[in-house]
Write a sequence for this structure.
């Protein structure tokens, strides 16, 4: 069982003056139940923002509720995770730029989000373990310029190859599918609120390897 008080975020919505009224709070539980490791929790972040120029005086609230688990069926294991939340970018969660509150000029519109992933692991040898999985995220806000929803999925396969004690190589292949409100520009994923898919690219892939040495 854990309770964390974390440095709060000030993810300003309209470049106004922000003020935190409490730390970011996370509470949850992680446990082991035979061959299953599982847990879940809830986190909240809030701040006030004022901007007299646009008559804005709002409380920006973000939350995240999550579940995760791993079933170990050696040499195979299965990992799953799922979450729901609101204004995740304002909370300081990276990679979720579209999950943020939007000030329309007259009112604040919150973004509702959900997502998750599933991963399958296979220990092929004492020093080699393969992983394959897929993830999906979805955002909803009626203030989006391109529609009410944004979504993307990604798929991956990699291997942890231990060459020696403390030295590992991880080759990986990833495929990204930009479904709504996302696109890929010049090989780098971007999130556009105004002109999604302006260059027509809705898919992307990457391949490479990481060399890691632990001390």
């Amino acid at each position: 069982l854990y309770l964390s008080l974390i440095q709060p975020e000030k993810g300003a919505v309209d470049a106004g003056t922000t003020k935190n009224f409490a730390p970011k709070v996370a509470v949850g539980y992680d446990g082991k139940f035979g061959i299953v490791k599982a847990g879940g929790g809830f986190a909240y972040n809030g701040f006030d923002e004022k901007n007299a120029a646009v008559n804005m005086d709002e409380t920006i609230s973000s939350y995240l509720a999550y579940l995760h688990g791993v079933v170990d069926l050696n040499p195979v294991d299965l990992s799953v995770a799922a979450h729901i939340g609101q204004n995740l970018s304002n909370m300081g969660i990276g990679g979720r730029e579209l999950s943020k509150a939007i000030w329309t000029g007259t009112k604040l519109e919150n973004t509702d989000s959900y997502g998750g992933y599933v991963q399958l692991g296979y220990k092929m040898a004492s020093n080699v373990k393969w992983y394959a999985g897929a993830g999906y995220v979805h955002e909803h806000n009626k203030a989006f310029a391109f529609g009410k929803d944004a979504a993307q999925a990604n798929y991956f396969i990699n291997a942890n190859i231990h060459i020696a004690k403390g030295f590992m190589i991880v080759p990986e292949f990833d495929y990204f599918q930009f479904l709504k409100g996302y696109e890929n520009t010049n090989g780098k994923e971007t999130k556009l609120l105004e002109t999604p898919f302006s260059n027509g690219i809705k898919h992307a892939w990457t391949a490479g390897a990481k060399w890691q040495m632990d001390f």
